[in-house]
Amino acid sequence: MGFDSVWVGDHLYLPREFYEKTGGDPERPNKLDAWTVLSAIAAQTRRIRLGARVSPLPFYDPGRIAKVVATVDIISGGRVNFGVGAGWFRDEAISFGLWWGRHEERISRMLEALEIILRLWTEDGRVTYNGRYYRVVGAPFWPKPLQKPYPPIWFGGSSEKILEITAKYGYGLLPLSDIPVERFKTLALRASERAGCLGRRVILAPSLTYPHALGEKPSEWISKIGEYAEAGADKIIVDLSTSNTPPNKVVRFLKDFSEAVFPRFRCVE
Fold this sequence. Notes:
Blueprint: E1 5-8, H1 16-22, H2 34-43, E2 49-52, E3 55-56, H3 62-75, E4 80-85, H4 90-95, H5 103-122, E5 127-130, E6 135-139, E7 153-156, H6 160-169, E8 172-174, H7 181-197, E9 203-204, E10 207-209, H8 218-231, E11 237-239, H9 247-261
């Protein structure tokens, strides 16, 4: 159909209201593993890029997530987008005995984990790292990801700290779904200023939920996407995760959307 990328949420489970909204059972909060799903999609596709939106690095061992993402990059022929974040759902962490801390601590842990991951992906020798949260000693890492120097890093969120980190390390930014267009415009200006000071440019990909934010009609889709493009969006992610839309209707929507919208807008790489 011409879509540029597909993203899967990376959670062990989600808040109760998610299942109530989507027709699921809050007492049996089902959720498939994101990177296993992306690996399956990789084996059945050839061109579309694949990513998690986003993997909470404080919930992972850095070496393990580095190996998982590199493996999917190899299976896909080099099509992975590595979306990362600091985690936001406290109950998810506490339920499974995962580390949880204040936002600033989670950001610091995310950065430390990312530093280890990037070293594992890029250094030829064994990696040793002694940090505040993580320690690796003479860690070998082969094979490396296919994409060089490594898969594009996308950060999730819109806080000042996330903007600062994205401007320095990121390929792209993934704001929360349905961010109001005026707020997104301000975010885009802030991101541009921060990245510009470092001689860089960051790709901005806001998400709009279907049908709540996008609407049901082609005229609504075109109008809404035009607003965000004018405000600074490089890409738009169509978020299908928050409505109880039957699969057959989703497929029809995607076909209609691609036919109506894609001739009007071009993806920016």
